Description:
36% helix
Amino acid sequence: MNRLEPQWMLPYDRPGAAVVTGVFDILHVGHVRFLRGVRERGLPLVIGVEDDPRVRAWKGPTRPLHSADERAEVLAALRFVDGVFIVTGPPELNLPDDYVTLLAPLRPGALAHTVGDPHAAGRAAAARILGAASWELAAVPGRSTTRIVESVTGLQL
């Protein structure tokens, strides 16, 4: 496979949704507030969950803590989520053009990310190419899966 592919867990096939992609390893209040904030902007919310090999390549051999199927199932259970898919493909496919190819069939109305996202510039570039808005929402300070894992285990990730 030389491109990213969606594996739909909660299918959504109408154009104009706000799309968010990420790991979502341990769902926490930061995720919920961010995702709800995206949905409250008025567009349907579709979430792409990065698959396990991609997460492992980026975050190390101890991640993800939960399988992509489980992460997608938890997100699909949120009442403000309209669609969920798993992002599958080689970990090295992580450039804006790779996500443009993945997301173009969805015809998104917006791509959303948090302030401070290290991939913000790439996400904004992908949104421009797709003709979608680029939304940047505030993150909840001190809330991240990495911080949760570090506080529970005492390990520095």
